Amino acid sequence: MIKTSLLKANAVSKLYPGERTTGVKNVTLDIKPGEITAVIGASGSGKSTLLKLFFGLISPDKGEIRFKGDRVWGPEEKLIPGHDEMKMVTQHTDDLNLFAKVWDNVATLLPNTDLKAKKEKTDNVLKQLNMTHLATRQVVDLSGGEKQRVAIARAMVTQPTVLLLDEPFNQVDTSFREALQQDIRQVVKDTGLTVVMVSHDPAEVLSMADELVVIKDGEILEKGQPRNLYKQPGHLYTAQLLANCNVLTSKQAKLLGVTSKKETIAIYTDYIDITKSWVGKAWEVKQVMFKGFFEELLVQQDNITVRALNKEQGKYKEGDKVNLKAWGYLEY
Ligand code: ADP
Ligand code: MG
């Protein structure tokens, strides 16, 4: 028996004409069930377009989207746009009833034919998303992050097979964001929900994704597990999206002890050992930027500026002479 995929893009293109043709170009992507697939790309790289294609909010020019083997209908072919077994949340999802309670905002998506199931399912999703304490609050009184939780609870309560998330955590402050990300990961583990999310935030995709897909100018550049893509990005674009990195010529990289025949060298800011220097030609610390549990040093030599991560707080100050040695690098 041939195993059909849950959700698949087959050579899908959707092009927007203009000075530069943009959109999504010839994308083939098989979404793994019960996992979080995250798509990362620069702004304008086609992330939202790809998600809308999956959901059926726009139709491909070429190729097709298939859900459990059946074609996903576009808006021209379907009265209510969007696939019935999928739900999508964006940062603009704003169909909440502000003056109703959180619980009612979530429960209202379920039918009244089985009130017991309605109550159970609503209570359950609020519990899964750690928002039981918000149940009786009016939405109008919630913070941006809490409202976003309600939007996600509404998407989850009908138990869709696939949840599509388009940068849904953008408006949520950092501490809330991480908790929400953890809760969604837990739901995926516990329920087998399939998630496709798009984002430009490396911290978000690296910690959330089982499978990470890199999109550039509408095309898939590479994909893999977050750890592997971070450590061994096949393209400089990926390295720059996922990590804080210095991009140097191989001649410049020599100053950090790197010998390479390749043209371009990428060195992550945390791949550099810094030591104090008293002799000869050295780098000079131009700026010390406090980042919380580490500092980022802006270090210069002969018009070359390098950023290096320093965990020994307060060890260096502006004007100090230092030696830099890269213990790891990527070559392109
Ligand atoms: P991302 O979500 O990665 O920022 P989008 O998928 O929103 O990218 O957009 C990809 C490109 O397509 C952008 O250059 C955008 O300006 C263009 N685009 C998106 N939607 C439309 C549209 N409806 N009409 C014309 N151009 C569009
Ligand atoms: Mg977008």
TrEMBL record:
The keyword Nucleotide-binding applies. Keywords: ATP-binding, Nucleotide-binding, Transport. It holds the Pfam family ABC_tran. SMART domains: AAA. Residues 7-242 form the ABC transporter domain. It comes from the Bacteria. GO terms for molecular function: ATP binding; ATP hydrolysis activity. The keyword Cell division does not apply. PROSITE patterns: ABC_TRANSPORTER_1, ABC_TRANSPORTER_2. InterPro entries: AAA+_ATPase, ABC_SmlMolc_Importer, ABC_transporter-like_ATP-bd, ABC_transporter-like_CS, P-loop_NTPase. This is ABC transporter ATP-binding protein.
